[in-house]
Amino acid sequence: MNQNLTAPQQPINVEQTFGFKTNFQVCAFESTSEAVPVIDPDYQFDPDVTLAILAGFCANRRTLIQGLHGTGKSSHIEQVAARLNWPCMRINLDGQISRLDLIGKESIVLEQGHQVTKFQEGLLLQCLQKPVALVLDEYDAGRPDVMFVIQQLLEQNGQYTSLEQGKVMTPHRNFRLFATCNTLGLGDSYGMYSGTHVLNQSQLDRWTVIATLNYLSAQHEVSIVLAKAPYLNNPSGRRLARQMVATAQLTRSGFEAGDISILMSPRTVITWAQNIDLLGDIASAFRLSFLNRCDGEERALISEYYQRCFDGSPEATLPIQKELAS
Question: Per the database record, which ranges form the ATPase dynein-related AAA domain (predicted)?
């Protein structure tokens, strides 16, 4: 493959595209492909995290994005890739992903009517040889044997020694490596992320750019809700969106204070808004989107958060009070 033919050469206006200025030039591929994520025109970019992701794409920095659930870590990378026309592959490192899935294995195949044993490259080696942004999702949930496979790619030259094939593989010049995690490899201090592990600090030290994506400001979150639930884009709908975000922020404050053990993510607020449109009832949608997965002893306090934001309206709180009493 001629790598010069697969290089991003189309300069883009970062301020116009992402809403802020940078000190380095950002270029996009001139054409798109089926591996490029679909652009979400309403996506809200966080400037600091977007800058870190752009550094990953433009300067080949190994970039790790950490943050609480529902903040849009993976989608942030994908939406930057979409605007750069950069092919993107996302792998969720759940407990079922093995070393063989990433590296490959010997398989029996038919060639000219005969069965032969041939090495079939895994996802990691396939991506390594292409102009692809590989996103390792749930990085802190990966199995130890899988994580050590990745470690060699985090070195300065990024070469990978394939013992199975007996050769050293040099990554494509436009191969990029990203990862997302909830805990930053120091253990689950929140008690919310079952299945995560403490990461090897030697490996964590090899990530050259680490950014944190937490929940956006109330104004930005309202904008996201309105974009995902367009039916709310009117005066009364915008007021409702502000009340919903205010409720979510109270749950986050209560979580930080240790009053409750669960919080509403932006993803949950969007689900709540979409369920209101489906069900036609604010409180029923709130119950089905969030309250039903809360601890029974905490529901009274969460109901109180709701009432504070919705002015204690009996019409809005009655279904919740029934749920608490049941």
Answer: 64-185
